[in-house]
Amino acid sequence: MNGPRHGPEDGGLAAFLLDHDDPADIPVLYWKDGSLTRGELIEAAERLAGRLGPVAGLPVACLVDDGVRAITAMFATWLAGGVYVPVNARLTDTEVRAQLLAQRPALVVVGPEQAGRVPEGIGVLAEEAPGRWTALRPPAEPPEHRFGEDEALIMRTSGTTGDSKPVVLSHKGVRDGIDTVIAKLRGGKAKGGGRPPMPNLIPTSQALWAGSWNALFSFRLGAPVVLLDRFDPVDYADLVRRFELRSTILAPAMMTMLLEDPRVTDLGRLRFVRSVTAPLVPDQARRFRDRFGVGVLNSYGQTELGGEVVGWTASDTREFGESKLGAVGRAHPGVEIRILDSERRELPPDEAGEIWIRSPFANKADLPADRVADGFLRTGDLGRLDAEGFLWIEGRVSDMVNRGGLKIVPQEVEAALRRHSAVADACVAGVPDARLGEVPVAWVRVAAGEERPDEAALLAFLREGLTGYKVPVAVRFVADFPRTEIGKVLRRELVASFDGSRSADEMESR
């Protein structure tokens, strides 16, 4: 790279790539058809950093359609002192335009097919061929505001319950969060010993915080990264066997895809998967373990909290693995959890309420003021802490159905539906009702090879195990649910699509 490097004095997150004793010819980045060594990745990042120009303190975006380009752009941005902004290329043109105009980056790094999606007035640097960059539009005039040296990247929340929001994360906060997880997994040791870390297969896009965080986790650990930008069950199983992986990450929706794909008959030497991005119900964890002989460990975090803040250790797994199946684990060191009721009173163990968390890894200056009290962030999730300190996620506050004053947690009803032999998956959400305010409706995906059950019989099945007011007033059968890229169901789209052809009185009388 020509000229001095910018950013924090300690190198910030760029040090995850640069400050390793491993030989430069060791592969650190793999994908289905290729690989890069550490030396090659450093050279590519430095070359791109030199093309970015004077961007210290300015946002630099990457329209992410390729994980290798995204990781290169991420490290290049930090080498040049900029703030990295990944934008998902799978969004609509309208969404891409809105995110770029909201952030106003100095430049957008793109592949050759994405350049036309960048609004006028924003610079474009296109990778015409691997490592060959062409400036298609000069950088935008720099704004008066520049970010501080410790501000590293701007990620967006998932947007499952509304519009996604930008969150600024710091070099120090992300590094401290990752180091805490590594130390916890190693039993308190900051550095490992013995055999080198095995590769980390990342089956999520690098446009998402789950993808970026796990890539950074791997570089910090000294583990090679294996990219799978678009999840495919067969490709995933092939990569698990090819790299002889014993552990990896998966989103719950990906586990379901693996369970239901007849082409996937085994997962090689895999022994554990860590569930990420969305709550995992115990029944799903058991099905995955029983089918593949692979244990499932949950975890919990939010973008605003700086990443993962609750998880499992190896010792917890040995002691509590079966009895706590479905819990997301215990708080990482330095993380505090409170379970509060609607009056913000702390609840005793095993009583469900709203989860509030104080995280040392969060960028406190960027936390939403309307969701913070005494340094604790209102997560919007419902859960409970048991006597041993394990956190159990019950659902989202915004997902709760208020049926004439009676509160229904959809996840409880969904779990009951999945216990029916003909149901592969289910989603429950509240739809508007003139008399009761809201009533629950279920959307059901039928299991492969099963006949679609009769709606009345399915509702009768639910009444055997649920209090009457929790039973949905109607069932809609679907081929699949609308989802985010990481598999979270978009309940609001289901509600918007509800035809409402029968009144609540008519439906309740069935």
Automatic annotation (TrEMBL):
Q: Which PROSITE patterns match?
A: AMP_BINDING
Q: Which UniProt keywords are given for this protein, alphabetically ordered?
A: Ligase
Write down the Gene3D superfamilies for this protein, in alphabetical order: 3.30.300.30, N-terminal domain of ligase-like
Q: Which regions span the lipid bilayer?
A: none
Write down the InterPro entries for this protein, in alphabetical order: AMP-bd_C, AMP-bd_C_sf, AMP-binding_CS, AMP-dep_synth/lig_dom, ANL_N_sf
Q: Where is the AMP-dependent synthetase/ligase domain?
A: 24-361
User: What range(s) does the AMP-binding enzyme C-terminal domain occupy?
Assistant: 412-488
Q: Record's family?
A: Belongs to the ATP-dependent AMP-binding enzyme family.
From the Swiss-Prot or TrEMBL record, give the protein name: Acyl-CoA synthetase (AMP-forming)/AMP-acid ligase II
